[in-house]
Amino acid sequence: MQRLRFALLLVLWVGTTLSGCDSPGQLETTPTTVTVTPTMTATMDKVITPEVTKATGKQPVTTPTPTIEPAIAFPPEINCGETFCQESWSGLLICPIGPDGKQTIDPTYPYASTKNGTLDPHHGVEFPNGSGTAVLAAQSGEVVFAGTDDLTLLGPYTGFYGNVVILHHLEIYEGQDLFTLYAHLSLIEVEEGQQVSTGDLIGKVGATGAADGSHLHFEVRLGENDYASTTNPILWFSPLENSPSGVTSTLAGLILDRWGEPLDRFQLSLERLDQEGAVEEHFYPETYYPVGVNGHPALGENFAMADLPAGDYRLAFISGSFYQFNFTLEPGSLGFIKLQLQ
């Protein structure tokens, strides 16, 4: 396993201001180069680069079996007291698409995205699959809705989900209920009031409702079966195991502006590096839209990405200054970055 490394180079750019920021005050513009050493104590009131340590004695997690039950230790403690933390991550839910279908999540329309302001904030994630692909119960529970939403308001407007199934998972997370929603189905295989087990067939992928092509729209609602109670589904799954790159990793983070508020609708650049440090692949995560969506209760994140190949990465962005982070994601883990900008 490669040794974790983490470095931060902070370069203040002359005359550069925070894009889209309407908060008071101005960033410093004096041309200065500051190299921050990796031995500083982690604090959240300034940009730092602490020494990064990975979880010791942790083994890569395995994909949950169809008999998964609520895990008492979910989620693991992710706050290591440093800017970058990493832990093995075993979710409470299995993928709602079986191994015969495409289990990867569409990265072009993630949770809380508005597709560059063209749509309302996305309250779930998408699993693009052909019509008729089996849809599975992500956890044991009771069917509390199974049918069309033409006359029932379940989302922003009636007819939004088309054929939809909602499962109720009683007190699954720290005494709170979860609800999982499976939308745009071509066929529903369960009835209201029915008890299902993890991995049971509950429907088939389709394009009903406000669907743009055949796919499964999947939501996780915490506490209440309500459109305003969604959280990012990817943080309730274990990292995908059967991908072409092997066991994947998940990355999440909380980027705060200089006043301690989450930096919203801000695009980041994420690069996967080879062993020589050359860029192999680019990703462009964006921080959440600030209204109508929610961070995971254990993380409070404002960006997240799933299905990332394990390995070396560089995260970079400009917000008054140029920020660059190098880190390593371990297989089966969740890496978490928390940073307040200067």
Summarize the entry for a quick read.
The chain has 342 residues and is mostly beta strands. The chain has no helices and 20 strands. The chain has strands spanning 7-12, 33-35, 84-88, 125-128, 134-136, 141-148, 163-173, 176-185, 187-188, 195-196, 201-204, 215-222, 230-231, 248-256, 269-273, 279-283, 303-309, 311-318, 321-329, 333-340.
Keywords for this entry:
342 residues; six-stranded antiparallel beta sheet; 35% strand; Glucose Permease (Domain IIA); 0% helix; seven-stranded antiparallel beta sheet; single chain; disordered N terminus; Protocatechuate 3,4-Dioxygenase, subunit A; mainly beta
Describe this structure in words.
- Helix content is 0%, strand content 35%.
- It has strands at 7-12, 33-35, 84-88, 125-128, 134-136, 141-148, 163-173, 176-185, 187-188, 195-196, 201-204, 215-222, 230-231, 248-256, 269-273, 279-283, 303-309, 311-318, 321-329, 333-340.
- The model is unreliable at 1-73 (pLDDT under 50).
Residue fraction in strands = 25-35%
The structural class is mainly beta
What is the global morphology?
globular
Order of SSEs: EEEEEEEEEEEEEEEEEEEE
Give the count of helical stretches.
Answer: 0
Distance between the termini: 34 Å
Helix content: under 10%
Examine the secondary-structure arrangement and name the CATH architecture of the largest domain. Sandwich
How large, in whole angstroms, is the Cα Rg?
21 Å
User: How many domain units?
Assistant: 2
Query: How many β-strand runs?
Result: 20
Low-confidence runs: 1-73
Sheet with the most strands, sense and barrel status: 7 strands, antiparallel
Q: Return the CATH topology of the largest domain.
A: Protocatechuate 3,4-Dioxygenase, subunit A
Q: pLDDT average, as an integer? A: 81
The CATH class label of the largest domain is Mainly Beta
